[in-house]
């Protein structure tokens, strides 16, 4: 036998026992997004490499080291999407969704980054992304934060820490940038190699460095807050007032910058202490400059993306049963006649009880073997069709998880009534 082919490192199958939890999280998120008036958009997984270079920025970890880029058969450079915002803006421009209107959009799906795989960090991972266009004020930022807070609550997750910051206007940032470069020049020998390289190309990114040797130095670096112009300051204060009014707790972290170049004004992160170094479960902010960066006219924009794997990890730690969807009943078919009539009975039950989750035994087996399968399926009840039942035109019902009753035979109509009563389906 030849060697078995394995999946790619950092790219994982979602196995049957886990897909229920994914479905649960996606459903909860979708419901909340719909309640706030957000509409789903679906973009391709592959875009032109140029799109990500122009949006995320050439001198960012993602574009420099993490993208899966390749030449297609026409020699064009394409990349698997490392995030969804760029594609969403591209689609919005292409289909005329951005000008003279307001949009609340969301999407979900896999993203691809060639990072070092570890717990909470994968090469194919999943995000739910939320993007808004045409809202210039801080109200929409507060809405995005309130919406995400509602989601954590609906998922039964522990309290996360909310950190916010303002990166100010591009002009304010230009002045600050100079001060920052001066500061780091004075400490050049203390910078790690990446930060030395970034000093000229992208000094703000140094503040985001995860390198341990940079933490102490970054704590001494000048703070952007001092350079915010009045309008940026007012915008940021209004956001804080909204959060106060909504009773959403936050801390202002003046060193919070994002790993992508397109943010301005508000940035925020939801962080947990339960996932070690991979503690950011959701990150976002305002990115008014991005639409022009991609060739459009200016459009205010704000959004966030959350990491589905990290949230599921937490959900599992707090509630092991999340999303498990067991059948209500397992239909046991004992004998030739039962096998012949079983499929018809199962279809009839599914038609008459639309909410019923029913698994029918297939491909035979002894009564005992079928009972074992029924138990393993997680079903709450076994339905038994055997020679006796066929003769008497009944179906037997047997609880598998409780001792409500031992076993009872019902005519078809009475069985339907009993099942709806037991499992609450119409
Ligand atoms: P980090 O600092 O953890 O690398 P990031 O700043 O690169 O995160 P974003 O690009 O803002 O992350 O993505 C938003 C969210 O997506 C993150 O907060 C995280 O929850 C999730 N995420 C990002 N990269 C990965 C990954 N490689 N594996 C799993 N989840 C990820
Ligand atoms: Mg990253």
- Secondary structure category: alpha+beta
Number of strands: 16
| Uncertain residue ranges | none
Described by strand count, sense and barrel closure, the largest sheet is:
8 strands, mixed
Hetero groups = adenosine-5'-triphosphate, magnesium ion
| CA-based gyration radius | 28 Å
- Proportion of residues in β-strands: 15-25%
Q: Major sheet: order of its strands?
A: 1-5-6-11-10-9-7-8
Nearest-integer average pLDDT? 94
Number of helices: 15
Range of helix content = 40-55%
- How far apart the termini lie comes to 52 Å
Task: Write the topology of this structure.
Elements lengths: L15 H20 L3 E2 L5 E3 H8 L4 H6 L2 E3 L5 E4 L4 H10 L8 E10 L11 E10 L4 H17 L6 E6 L3 H16 L7 H9 L10 H9 L9 H16 L5 E2 L13 E6 L8 E7 L3 H4 L7 E7 H11 L10 E5 L2 H17 L5 E3 L6 H11 L3 E5 L1 H6 L2 E5 L8 E3 L1 H12 L3
Parallel strand pairs: 1-5, 7-8, 12-13, 12-14
Antiparallel strand pairs: 2-4, 3-4, 5-6, 6-11, 7-9, 9-10, 10-11, 14-15, 15-16
The structure holds adenosine-5'-triphosphate (ATP) and magnesium ion (MG).
Describe the structure.
- The protein has 426 residues and is of the alpha+beta class.
- The chain contains 15 helices and 16 strands.
- The chain has helices at 16-35, 49-56, 61-66, 85-94, 138-154, 170-185, 193-201, 212-220, 230-245, 290-293, 308-318, 336-352, 367-377, 387-392, 412-423; strands at residues 39-40, 46-48, 69-71, 77-80, 103-112, 124-133, 161-166, 251-252, 266-271, 280-286, 301-307, 329-333, 358-360, 381-385, 395-399, 408-410.
- Strand 15 and strand 16 form a beta hairpin.
- The protein is elongated and about 90 Å long.
- The protein starts with 15 loop residues before the first helix and ends with a helix.
- Magnesium ion (MG) binds at residues 61, 259.
- Adenosine-5'-triphosphate binds at residues 83, 113, 115, 120-122, 125, 127, 259, 278, 280-283, 305-307, 309-310.
């Amino acid at each position: 036998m030849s060697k078995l082919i394995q999946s790619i490192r950092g790219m994982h199958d979602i196995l049957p026992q886990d897909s229920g939890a994914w479905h649960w999280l996606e459903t909860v998120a979708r419901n909340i997004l719909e309640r706030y008036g957000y509409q789903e958009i679906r973009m391709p997984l592959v875009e032109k490499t140029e799109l990500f270079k122009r949006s995320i920025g050439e001198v960012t970890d993602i574009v420099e080291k993490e993208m899966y880029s390749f030449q297609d058969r026409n020699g064009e450079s394409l990349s698997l999407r490392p995030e969804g915002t760029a594609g969403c803006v591209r689609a919005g421009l292409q289909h005329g969704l951005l000008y003279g209107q307001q949009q609340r959009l969301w999407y979900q799906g896999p993203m691809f980054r060639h990072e070092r795989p570890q717990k909470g960090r994968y090469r194919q991972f999943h995000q739910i992304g939320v993007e808004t266009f045409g809202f210039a004020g801080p109200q929409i930022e507060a809405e995005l934060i309130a919406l995400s807070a509602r989601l954590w609550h609906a998922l039964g997750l522990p309290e996360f820490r909310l950190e916010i910051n303002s990166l100010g206007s591009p002009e304010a940032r230009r002045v600050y940038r100079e001060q920052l470069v001066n500061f780091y020049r004075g400490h050049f020998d203390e910078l790690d190699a990446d930060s030395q390289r970034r000093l000229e190309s992208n000094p703000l990114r140094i503040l985001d460095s995860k390198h341990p040797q940079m933490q102490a130095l970054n704590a001494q670096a000048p703070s952007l807050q001092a350079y915010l112009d009045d309008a940026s300051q007012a915008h940021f204060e209004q956001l804080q007032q909204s959060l106060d009014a909504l009773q959403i707790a936050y801390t202002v972290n003046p060193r919070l910058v994002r790993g992508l170049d397109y943010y301005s004004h508000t940035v925020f992160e939801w962080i947990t202490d339960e996932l070690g170094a991979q503690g950011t479960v959701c990150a976002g902010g305002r990115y008014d400059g991005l639409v022009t960066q991609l060739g459009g006219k200016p459009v205010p924009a704000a959004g966030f993306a959350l990491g589905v794997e990290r949230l599921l990890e937490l959900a599992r730690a707090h509630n092991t049963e999340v999303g498990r969807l067991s059948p209500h009943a397992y239909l046991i078919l004992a004998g030739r006649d039962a096998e012949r009539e079983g499929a018809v009975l199962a279809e009839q039950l599914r038609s008459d009880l639309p909410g019923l989750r029913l698994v029918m035994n297939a491909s035979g087996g002894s009564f005992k073997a079928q009972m074992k399968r029924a138990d393993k399926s997680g079903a709450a009840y076994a339905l038994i069709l055997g020679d006796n039942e066929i003769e008497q035109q009944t179906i037997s019902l047997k609880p598998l998880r409780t001792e409500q009753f031992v076993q009872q035979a019902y005519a078809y109509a009475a069985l339907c009534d009993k099942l709806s009563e037991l499992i609450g389906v119409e």
